[in-house]
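Why do we care about 3D structure at all? Because function follows from shape, and shape follows, mostly, from sequence. That is the central idea of this module. The next example makes it concrete: a single protein chain, its amino acid sequence, and then its structure expressed as tokens.
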Amino acid sequence: MLRPTHRSGKKLVLLALVVVAVIGIVTAGVALGPRLLAQRGKAAAKGQPTAGQARADKAAEKGEKEGKEEEAAVVALGDFLVNLRSQTGLRYLRTEVSVSLSGLGKEGKGGGHGEGAAKKSVLTEGEVAVARDRVVAVLSASTFEQLRTPEGRTGLKQQLQANLQQALPKYQVTEVLLTSFVMQ
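And the structure:
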């Protein structure tokens, strides 16, 4: 092994050790990543909770112990494709929207993990139709230039939340989630 005689040589050796350590960590992550994902998928298929679900279940139990009866659910409203107004020509937006609803009570909760098709829907078909109509109205009134910025997307989510709260008055709309967002 070469022995550095100057301070800069020591720095180079230290830098080389750091680079080797980082490469080792990245390699381990690449090698173990698929295995961890496969284990998570197997646990979900067997109906066993994943680590995240276990934490959520513990938090729910804690809330119940504290006397909180309010339940929450995330409801997917589906895929939306709308034309956007733009100064530069024809544009469109394709997005998937979900809403987080609270105030469901115990009867509105869809059931436990692994119930699949037996799981009860939180919203009725009519409520979903009204909610989707409101989403289309808000999205199609937006401009391409508005939605290009993070502030514009935040404003869009706030506007959607206010409109969905009016459309679904018996629930508390706590958050709007844009799970996919593509503009062209």
